[in-house]
Amino acid sequence: MRHTISVLVENEFGVLARVAGLFSGRGFNIESLSVAPTLDPSLSRMTIVTTGDDRILEQINKQLNKLIDTVKVIDFTSEDYVERELAMIKVNADESVRAEVLRIADIFRSKVVDVTPRSYTLEVTGAPTKIDAIIELLRPIGIKELVRTGPVVLGRGPKGWRQAE
């Protein structure tokens, strides 16, 4: 089962390495990891996507909470949340397919962020399923490069980190 975990941590040197070490040392796989400072520059928020059964997730949560730098851990698997991901896709765009690439970009509300005589680079944001769908449509045209951020999540409604503590 796929789990999305959000971890609020002290924004200090080595915290990311300790979290990654926790996962690797126990044989847990991180499918994606996104880290950035919050409104409070002394704190960072990690969004971690992993897989495993409920027993594994319980162990992960306990281990994350034991880390000194951890402020709060939220497992969004059973929560109501908004999930978004960003991808940049460099696709072949010679004269014969430029119009088709632009139509696909328009359908997915993506932006053309770079143009060369032989390629377009698209920026697309949305749910991971949306990213997967545009990739599958662009694949036959010829994807030259692809980079994805992995998902980031926020709980729905007024409750935030400060109110949840």
UniProtKB/TrEMBL annotation:
<dbReference type="GO" id="GO:0009099">
    <property type="term" value="P:L-valine biosynthetic process"/>
</dbReference>
<feature type="domain" description="ACT">
    <location>
        <begin position="4"/>
        <end position="78"/>
    </location>
</feature>
<dbReference type="InterPro" id="IPR004789">
    <property type="entry name" value="Acetalactate_synth_ssu"/>
</dbReference>
<dbReference type="InterPro" id="IPR039557">
    <property type="entry name" value="AHAS_ACT"/>
</dbReference>
<dbReference type="GO" id="GO:0005829">
    <property type="term" value="C:cytosol"/>
</dbReference>
<keyword id="KW-0028">Amino-acid biosynthesis</keyword>
<comment type="pathway">
    <text>Amino-acid biosynthesis; L-isoleucine biosynthesis; L-isoleucine from 2-oxobutanoate: step 1/4.</text>
</comment>
<keyword id="KW-0100">Branched-chain amino acid biosynthesis</keyword>
<dbReference type="InterPro" id="IPR027271">
    <property type="entry name" value="Acetolactate_synth/TF_NikR_C"/>
</dbReference>
<comment type="subunit">
    <text>Dimer of large and small chains.</text>
</comment>
<dbReference type="InterPro" id="IPR054480">
    <property type="entry name" value="AHAS_small-like_ACT"/>
</dbReference>
<comment type="pathway">
    <text>Amino-acid biosynthesis; L-valine biosynthesis; L-valine from pyruvate: step 1/4.</text>
</comment>
<dbReference type="GO" id="GO:1990610">
    <property type="term" value="F:acetolactate synthase regulator activity"/>
</dbReference>
<dbReference type="GO" id="GO:0009097">
    <property type="term" value="P:isoleucine biosynthetic process"/>
</dbReference>
<comment type="function">
    <text>Catalyzes the conversion of 2 pyruvate molecules into acetolactate in the first common step of the biosynthetic pathway of the branched-amino acids such as leucine, isoleucine, and valine.</text>
</comment>
<dbReference type="InterPro" id="IPR002912">
    <property type="entry name" value="ACT_dom"/>
</dbReference>
<comment type="similarity">
    <text>Belongs to the acetolactate synthase small subunit family.</text>
</comment>
<keyword id="KW-0808">Transferase</keyword>
<protein>
    <recommendedName>
        <fullName>Acetolactate synthase small subunit</fullName>
        <ecNumber>2.2.1.6</ecNumber>
    </recommendedName>
</protein>
<dbReference type="GO" id="GO:0003984">
    <property type="term" value="F:acetolactate synthase activity"/>
</dbReference>
<dbReference type="Pfam" id="PF10369">
    <property type="entry name" value="ALS_ss_C"/>
</dbReference>
<dbReference type="InterPro" id="IPR045865">
    <property type="entry name" value="ACT-like_dom_sf"/>
</dbReference>
<dbReference type="Pfam" id="PF22629">
    <property type="entry name" value="ACT_AHAS_ss"/>
</dbReference>
<dbReference type="InterPro" id="IPR019455">
    <property type="entry name" value="Acetolactate_synth_ssu_C"/>
</dbReference>
